[in-house]
UniProtKB/TrEMBL annotation:
Signal peptide positions on this chain: 1-20
Domain (SGNH hydrolase-type esterase): residue spans on this chain: 178-379
Originating organism: Ruminococcus albus
Protein known as: GDSL-like Lipase/Acylhydrolase family protein
Keywords carried by this UniProt record: Hydrolase, Signal
Pfam families in alphabetical order: CE2_N, Lipase_GDSL_2
Gene3D superfamilies (alphabetical): Galactose-binding domain-like (2.60.120.260), SGNH hydrolase (3.40.50.1110)
Region Disordered: start-end pairs: 22-48
Biased composition (Basic and acidic residues): 38-48
InterPro entries tied to this protein: CE2_N (IPR040794), CtCE2-like_dom (IPR037461), PCW_deacetylase/CE (IPR052762), SGNH_hydro (IPR013830), SGNH_hydro_sf (IPR036514)
Segments forming domain Carbohydrate esterase 2 N-terminal: 56-168
Sample GO molecular function, one term: carboxylic ester hydrolase activity
Amino acid sequence: MTKKKFMLLCALVLSIFASGCGKDNSSEKDSSSSSQVTEEKGMKGTRLTEENAKLIGRTYLNDEGTLWCALSGSGVEFEFTGKNLDILIESDKVTSTGPREHYSRLAIYVDGERVVDDMLNDNIKKYSPIQGDTEVTKTVQIIKLSETAMSCFGILPINLEDGASIKPTEAKPHKIEFIGDSITCGYGVDDEEPTHTFATSTEDVTKAYAYKTAQALGADYSMFSISGWGIISGWSGDGKQHPEQQIPLYYEKQAFSYGGFNNVEAQCVDWDFGRYQPELVVINLGTNDESYCKTDEEKRAAYVAGYVEFLKTVRKNNPDSRILCVLGIMGDALYPCVEQAVADYSAETGDTNISAFHLEPQKPEDGLAADYHPTETTHTKAADALTAEIKSVMGW
């Protein structure tokens, strides 16, 4: 699938979702299969909540007790004590109705080591990351490696053996939110052939600059990123605007996905910003807008105006956060517009708790990943630069 066909497919499905946020009966089969598996396993189950686990990013706990993950990097982390740990993961309707290139990719870590890296190609999959005859205490992390738009997955209540327990891992000293596009998602980072096209199997958010920056700073993170989307337009191969692919349209929602949480659409669920208040919000948007704006001054002015309005939305929901606006990894043509948006926003609102930072464009010697996206080498360099800037701005 070429990038053009990929974006056309996204636009087509997006137009269907735009018609309303009603119940999706096509997902009821998956929901019933989840319940059936739970019953067959004799699972009363322990629901993953803030009381017994650290929830990473925007997660959604449904009435059945399944913890759904949509956005890149979302998931859960907990300290497990026991002998055996089985984890059941439920896929969304994309597994039965969508292309394989859109299945969810997930990782499970035990004490920081990735022990599972898998594509969800079945309605329910079982993973047993800890097995033995001796009781152990281990840190377990389940992370969504692929992005929200294509698919989601749910973590079923965990059936703990007698004597086993889970508890939240400690919060890290700092909290960051990243808002971005395919670069933040880690699009294509596992496929260093630039002529290859999109597949969730080659996305890995842990190899992208945002995740690396959070790790370097010892910070908890949340991400809201969608490939191909922007401030006023999604990626444009023909110079036409794609206003339906604007991050501001869904930033105040749980996520946006062509899959969903069984019969619940992610884009129809309001996000409770009280659940996660970051000290810093990093915005990296403009790469896709540039394909639409190019050198047209009127379009560039619209990008600046749209950016200013989005900054107001970000500030409304994150009143005490520092905002850092960055751009440049896949092209910095709109970076002067980012600086202008920051200046215009500050002049209009009097808010000076904001700044801009230029990221160096990727270099040929560092290679190119699928669809000419950044390699892990480029992501690492960007993370190093961003980490240094954040330390300077935040005093961390």
